[in-house]
Amino acid sequence: MASIEKRPLRRKIDGRSAFSYRVMWRDPDGKQKSRTFQPGDRPNIPQKGRAGHHAAALEFKAEIEKQLSAQAYIDPHAGKITFRTYADAWLETVKATKKPRTYNNYSSRLRLHVYPTIGNWPLAKIQRATVQRLVNSLCDDLAGRTIRQIYDTTASVFTEAVFDRKIGSTPCVRIKLPDAESEEVKPLTIDEVEALSEAMPDHLRAWPIVNAGSGLRTSEMLGLTWDRLDFDTATVKVDQQLVGSNRATGAPRFGTHKSKASYRTIPLPRTVVQALREHKRTVLNSHGLVFAREDGRAYNRGSFSRVWVPTIALSGLPEGTEPKQLRHTYASLLIDGGESPKVIQKRMGHSSIKITMDVYGHLYPESEQRTRNVIDRAFDGGESTIGYADEVMDAVAA
Predict the structure, then answer these.
(1) Is the pTM higher than 0.70?
(2) N or C: which end of the chain has fewer CB within 10 A?
């Protein structure tokens, strides 16, 4: 399986002959491999008779034989590749298989937050404690949710390195992460939606009404085309989103959704249909887009943001108001109207009811009295008076 060759060194140590130990083996492909252990290579092993490196060689030989017999061989040289070099190669795979936005997110997390700390480290040298120190160093400046996203991306790199047999195991085990504080959604009021609509440029004036009345994601709004609208049935088919645009021609680049639940047909209220009909008569119809730039070219997130930010200032809404709050308005209106969570999940395109309740559960009104009334009506046809003691006492006093 593996063998050790003892080789004399030309130099002497403490006036005595010294030796190196060369471990030799063949990998599963039959290629000859070797690693040489010199005196001092393993200072943490007791230097009994100056042979600590001999013990290290024996230990290494045993590990190689164990891997070969278990068909779990890891080339010791493979782990010398740096984290940055391997992660960059992994990102190229992501680029070919994921959406551009996903690739950009992964790339920026690694480039800004991970490479400066462990980018030049060999993969095999990165231990669990190294990853924990990386996470700890981020806690002073970043939110818990952001740190978890950075960690998840880093862990994905190590997981892929294990599959590629660059390392034997991932160091991302039992890492203590900060809590991901939940961000409470803030829907816009109808007055705020109307104020935003008034402040919008003419070619986007219908955007707030349509968004708040349909619950589309921003990427779905930017990728909405007229052929997805059916004015006869008052519905919109949601089966694409904008992922970018051609810089030369301004043509949109459409992408698919991540989950099947995002593919949906949404009923449009009369207010939205009227806004769309008026919008269609007044804007340039280019590339079939419902919402495009004034010259007909497709927006991207950057160019849309450059319109959105000054519009918020002009409308009088709080600084930092985001487009997604119009989507939250749609959900809040459905909740106020008594729609079931299951229906809201379907309209929002959520893959599970848990997502819907995690995001919007706090918008549901307190239901203690409703619970009492349901049971009391079942037993005696009346409604419970529990909880109304103050009102009863006031009426008696009067």
Answers:
(1) no
(2) C
